[in-house]
Amino acid sequence: MSDKEYGGTDDLSLPKATVQKIVTEILQPFPGVAFAKDARDLLIDCCVEFITLISSEANEIAEKEAKKTIATEHIDKALRDLGFPEYVQEVLTSAGEHKEALKTREKKTNKMDQSGLSEAELLRQQEELFKSATEKYNQGPV
Q1: Which secondary structure element, helix H or strand E, spans residue 137, and what is its range?
Q2: How far apart are CA 34 and CA 20, in angstroms?
Q3: Model pLDDT for residues 16-62, shown as the tens digit of each residue
Q4: What are the DSSP calls for 67-130, one per residue?
Q5: Could you tell me the pTM of the whole model?
């Protein structure tokens, strides 16, 4: 199965540096073992193909259930249906860890919160900037 079968393009890939880092971490216990660049590129192609296969199957499952969003249970069923039941527990564990990490992740603050100024003070500054810009515009070219 190729990307074209799923309406994709050949541009699908994974970041080489990230894959290399994963491979390097896996190979650490084996000193002197190297991983060739062409082997890394082949691994990336295989990963993309696997992801495409699983996501396509999960999408079909979701569509049959009249769902517009692929959920964890669709991935679970896709893995089982395609003959990869041994991956299900690890995937579910990773999904749970990711969900927990999202809960505890520091909330992004917006610029207004970061400024330390009140909304009224920010509004006053904005009005001053607009007034200044209007005056410069009305003066015309210098």
Answers
A1: helix 119-139
A2: 11
A3: 999 999 998 988 888 888 889 999 999 999 999 999 999 999 999 99
A4: -SS--HHHHHHHHHHTT-GGGHHHHHHHHHHHHHHHHHSPPPPPHHHHH---HHHHHHHHHHHH
A5: 0.63
